[in-house]
Design goal:
heterodimer, A: 135 residues, Rossmann fold, B: 160 residues, alpha/beta, Fructose Permease, seven-stranded mixed beta sheet
Chain lengths: 135, 160
């Protein structure tokens, strides 16, 4: 049982698609929600949706944002700065979401570092990856 | 006259503005004029984060915004001005801010709002305010992204 809630914040249909695809890999994932920013949506409206997904209880929340500097990230990081139980990581990819979804650790610095590492190490160019694997 | 673009967009700073307009205009400063945002510390932070590095964002109410824009308009520095609604631009105009053109860039749909063009919808009050701007000599245009050809408000305003 995971101790924290996960929210995927991003542009358009990306968050819903990442959620659906992560569930394709892991099966149903509890306490995972997707909040997509519609093209015409105002940032304050999006902030309301994101706050609702984060919830008003005291449970820790990990927000994965799709793009550093984008509106979903900017809103999430402004929320995180005001709420110590909320952590925001930008640059979401499927590897990070799956790793976080299956984690039973506490949402602390160690876990955040591991998730960022999992996300980064999954970004490779195939020839270099092959060379590393066979050498 | 260095207010490169005065844009009405209820999303204020977002991808289209940052990616397209700032580059197209060569603007290195953004001034947001909006009473509600000026009072909202959370939204001020979100909008400041939304601008690229090296592009300062100033958030003003109407009164201090007018003073600031009159001052900036007299300098050679290219400035982009953002407001959420026509009423704000009209108030700036009445306060003596020189505005040749106002661009309608994003005005959401909703109850009591009529669609003018794509993502541009207006209430009857806003329609009246836009007409007043035109009467004061400020050209009203619709140009959602910098690559779009501007459409004159006058050419699509049916007058009712």
């Amino acid at each position: 049982m995971r101790s924290f809630r996960i929210v995927i914040a991003g542009h358009g249909t990306l968050p819903a698609a990442v959620l659906a695809t992560a569930e394709l890999i892991c099966g149903r994932i509890p306490d995972l929600t997707a909040v997509g920013l519609e093209p015409t949506e105002t940032p304050d409206h999006y902030a309301d949706s994101l706050r609702a997904a984060i919830g008003r209880d005291h449970r820790p929340v990990l927000v994965f944002a799709d793009l550093l500097g984008g509106t979903p990230f900017n809103v999430a990081s402004a929320i995180a700065r005001r709420s110590p139980r909320v952590v925001c990581v930008a640059g979401v990819n499927l590897a990070m979401v799956v790793e976080a979804a299956l984690s039973d650790a506490a949402l602390d610095d160690d876990l955040i570092e591991r998730l960022v590492e999992v996300g980064r190490s999954g970004i490779v160019e195939t020839e270099r990856h092959r060379a590393r694997r066979v050498s | 006259m260095s207010l490169r673009l005065v844009r009405i967009d209820d999303r204020l700073i977002h991808g289209q503005v940052v990616a397209g307009w700032l580059r197209a205009l060569g603007a290195r400063r953004i001034v947001i004029v909006d009473e509600a945002t000026a009072r909202d510390e959370f939204m001020r932070e979100v909008l400041t984060l939304a601008a690229p590095q090296g592009v300062p964002v100033e958030v003003c109410g109407v009164a201090d915004g007018a003073v600031r824009l009159i001052e900036l308009a007299a300098t050679p520095e290219p400035v982009m001005v953002l407001a959420r609604m026509p009423r704000t631009v009209l108030a700036l105009r009445h306060a003596g801010v020189p505005i040749d053109v106002v661009d309608l860039g994003g005005m959401g749909a909703g109850p009591g709002r009529r669609r003018l063009h794509k993502t541009i919808s207006v209430s009857s009050d806003e329609l009246r305010e836009l007409r007043e701007l035109e009467q004061m000599g400020t050209r009203v245009e619709i140009q959602i992204v910098a690559d779009d050809r501007p459409i004159a408000f006058r050419s699509i305003d049916t007058g009712n």
